[in-house]
């Protein structure tokens, strides 16, 4: 009974935050890169899988901090690189203290192609930076909550930078291979331009579910993630992952998103390799005119 009351209370809080954030929000978001998943496992499933507890939690400060205390192992770290319209490089680490508390930290740098502004500005490579801290706490063995804060900046010109702080709050229920998570993502004050106009962050109400079970010599996992952006847009990602003897992983997924969503529709494929404490994950994105032929890789270690 106590667990049910906690879940209901957490759900009511999440819905209250979502309703408050949705009031009078214009349609054009700033710092849209905050809404793009960075975990390579998720990238290989088109954004699905944020509730999975079997993968690395090193970058959960960017996505779902409630998964932190539920993930396997005592600590893990990863370094990532991807190319999706820009060069993205970064990394993160997570540490779990006992069975009930965990923290993570992550940073990512995006460097866009050089732009010729002419005149005194000459050429300049716009730069995006996001750094985050996350913490998760579990209780009743099956329920966890998490909160993350991220600082994001977008340097458009040598003397012109936009920045903001975003918060994500998630709750997750875990029962053997089943995981269900919900919350709000990228809540913040938005970005104020020099003209005085304020653009909101890509804030959303977020839902994620996954289920893993044994199949033959390996494990099959299915995941579904969805965002309803407070600008009125939405996106849904569905993916599958099969792990052969916890050594070789094959992934595929598809995301369907409404027009103008910060993370658009696309098809993704991914592979993963694990050997003792080491793991390598790669992904490839296609079936989208804007971000087709994008790729990424991550090298990590788990203790």
Describe what this molecule looks like in 3D.
The protein has 303 residues and is mainly β. Helix content is 8%, strand content 56%. The chain has two helices and 18 strands. The chain has helices at 2-22, 40-43, and strands spanning 75-83, 87-97, 101-111, 115-118, 122-124, 127-139, 143-157, 160-175, 178-187, 191-192, 198-199, 204-215, 218-229, 234-244, 248-257, 266-275, 278-286, 294-302. It has a 14-stranded antiparallel barrel. A two-stranded antiparallel ribbon has the order 4-5. A hairpin with a 3-residue loop joins strand 4 and strand 5 (122-124). The model is unreliable at 6-27 (pLDDT under 50).
**Terminal Cα span:** 36 Å
Helix content: under 10%
What is the overall number of helices? 2
The side-by-side strand order for the widest beta sheet comes to 1-2-3-6-7-8-9-12-13-14-15-16-17-18
> Helices and strands, in N-to-C order?
HHEEEEEEEEEEEEEEEEEE
| Fraction in beta strands | over 45%
Quaternary structure of the protein: single chain
Strands, count: 18
Mean pLDDT: 87
| Global Rg | 19 Å
Indicate the overall shape: globular
The largest sheet, given as strand count, sense and whether it forms a barrel, is: 14 strands, antiparallel, barrel
Classification by helices and strands: mainly beta
Q: Uncertain regions: pLDDT < 50 for 5+ in a row?
A: 6-27
Q: Secondary structure elements and their pairing?
A:
Elements: H1 2-22, H2 40-43, E1 75-83, E2 87-97, E3 101-111, E4 115-118, E5 122-124, E6 127-139, E7 143-157, E8 160-175, E9 178-187, E10 191-192, E11 198-199, E12 204-215, E13 218-229, E14 234-244, E15 248-257, E16 266-275, E17 278-286, E18 294-302
Antiparallel strand pairs: 1-2, 1-18, 2-3, 3-6, 4-5, 6-7, 7-8, 8-9, 9-12, 10-11, 12-13, 13-14, 14-15, 15-16, 16-17, 17-18
